[in-house]
Every structure is written in C-alpha cells, then in structure tokens.
Write a structure and sequence with these properties.
The chain has 160 residues and is α/β, with parallel strands linked by helices. Helices cover 35% and strands 24% of the residues.
Length: 160
C-alpha cells in the first residue's frame, strides 16, 4: 500500500465545490476483525486505463484478507464517491460476501450523471453505509492512516 503525504491528502480530500486538478481518487481504509486488523491507502492516479481505487481495494481484499475467514468491518474514507460502475461492482461484492460490512465516507460526490446517484443508492440497498466525510473523519485519516510526518491536522475554512 502506498503512503499519502499531508500535502496530497489536503489537496485531494479538501471538500471544495470547484475542484480543478483533482482527477485522482484516493481511498484510505481500515479493516477490522475483532480490532483494527489492517489500514492503508489505495491511490487511483488518473489514467483512463487504470483500475479505480475501489476495485483495486476489492482485488487486494479478496485475495489477501478474505481467505483468512471471519467477519470484517471495512471503512473507506474516499476523496470522491464511487462512480456508477464501481458502485455496481462493490454492491455485487457485498451481496456475495455477507461476512463483510462496508461504510463509505466521501469527501466529495462524483455525480457525472444520474447513474452515479443510482449507484450510491444501490450500495445502500446492498448493505453499505454511505455518508459524506465530517471534520472528525478528515482528522482520523490524518492521525491514523496517513504519513503525517509528525504534523498536526489543521481544519481548513468551511470544512463540512
């Protein structure tokens, strides 16, 4: 798993209305079994041929963690909410793996068309909890998942 610098985190997770240059998606995650089991960051640098961060996580989880068995609570803190295609893949995964619960907290909504909104609804119907990141979520990522280089998290103006 890659490490995310404070500068990259602040740039990509800042929940602004106008988002020039923020074409990549970053997915910070934690996986719990009885307690914190694993945490990390999965980037999706913007290249049309790359696998989106959500699907990269599913591949990693499916082949690295899932074979260990048990029930898992997964939490994503993601810079953009899933697109319709990723939402459908994640919803199918959740339907096929009832031993996995997923909470998704997004910094910004990815809503290019009506399918993206429907994708979020499909995730909820498949059992995922979907919400926007609140100030505490940004701080949690900074303190416990990022390579914060010993720096304290500073809330930005109008963080919601």
């Amino acid at each position: 798993m890659d490490r995310l610098s404070p500068r990259t985190f602040t740039f990509h997770f800042r929940n602004l209305l106008d988002t020039p240059g923020r074409n990549a998606t970053y997915l910070c995650f934690r996986v719990e079994k009885w307690q914190l089991f694993h945490k990390g960051i999965i980037p999706n640098p913007f290249y049309p041929e790359t696998l989106h961060a959500e699907l990269r996580f599913l591949d990693w989880f499916r082949y690295t963690i899932l074979p260990l068995g048990g029930r898992y609570q997964v939490c994503w803190y993601i810079s953009w909410s899933p697109c319709s295609h990723c939402a459908a893949e994640v919803a199918d995964f959740l339907r096929d793996h009832e031993n996995v619960s997923l909470s998704i907290f997004a910094a910004r909504l990815y809503l290019c068309d009506d399918k993206d909104e429907q994708g979020l609804q499909d995730l909820v119907e498949a059992g995922a909890q979907v919400a926007m990141m609140c100030p505490w979520d940004f701080k949690f990522c900074w303190d416990f998942i990022l390579d914060n280089q010993g720096m304290y998290f500073r809330y930005w103006k109008n963080v919601h």
